[in-house]
Design brief:
D-Maltodextrin-Binding Protein, domain 2; five-stranded mixed beta sheet; 10 helices; 10 strands; 42% helix; 25% strand; elongated
């Protein structure tokens, strides 16, 4: 088994991937280095041929990698699903977002609505337009690079600001001391679930070790770890 493996992973599953990788290191003695990024950035890096051993990304991205011959056929394994939530400042009252109508009303009254440029942010932008909020909010819509930046921006802007982000990323930032809280998941009728898979890259210099790590990330034991971080 190789002495080191490199993982490129979507940021929404950061906490779970990190914990599973640490356990893999402990039991195998193989060091695991992980770089987290948005799904669009992962697409660019993998398509450009960046060297890595394992990739963790949404199925749509994995389909692209498979067509490009960037991952090993048959190595894909389901990691989990992330849902989206509504984020407010830790000291702000939680708005009523119990259904799509209440959600629309709450966002229309917000001083700022923050989302990112990743998969969840692309969905958020589409949702705002679908609900007729894009024009109504105008310059109050704030677009940032990452999920973590969503929480930081909401914390900085204070009461009145609302963020839309992956629940798993919200939990990570709260654990880091960011002054935000999860008001509620998105209402069921407009909820967006993003699935994640792990696979071995075709360019891996240690395919057997990479296969074991990818299998660990998709194992039943890992699912318990991911569940505790907001990935079901």
């Amino acid at each position: 088994m190789s002495n080191e493996l490199k993982v490129l992973s979507a940021g929404a599953v950061k906490s779970g991937v990190s914990q599973v990788a640490q356990e893999f290191e402990r039991t195998t003695g193989t060091k695991v280095s992980i770089e987290f990024n948005t799904a669009p950035e992962l697409r660019k890096r993998i398509a450009a041929g960046e060297a890595a051993d394992v990739v963790v990304a949404p199925p749509a991205a994995m389909d692209e990698f498979q067509k490009q011959g960037r991952i090993v056929p048959g190595s894909r394994g389901f990691v989990g699903r992330s849902r989206m939530g509504v984020v407010v400042h830790a000291d702000a009252p939680a708005p009523d977002v119990s259904n799509a109508v209440a959600f629309t009303k709450a966002l229309a009254a917000a001083s700022a609505v923050v989302h990112n440029k990743a998969s969840s942010g692309i969905y958020s932008a589409t949702l705002l337009e679908k609900l007729g909020l894009k024009e109504k909010l105008g310059a109050r819509i704030v677009v940032v690079d990452t999920g973590g930046a969503v929480m930081k921006t909401v914390a900085e802007k204070g009461a009145g600001a609302i963020g839309l982000a992956q629940i798993s990323e919200v939990m990570v930032m709260i654990d880091k001391g960011c002054k935000v809280k999860l008001a509620a998941p998105l209402p069921g009728e407009i909820q967006n679930e993003t699935s994640y898979e792990a696979a071995v890259t075709a360019a891996s210099a240690s395919p057997e070790a990479a296969k074991k790590l990818a299998a660990s990330l998709a194992s039943d034991a890992a699912k318990k770890v991911f569940a505790a971080t907001g990935i079901s």
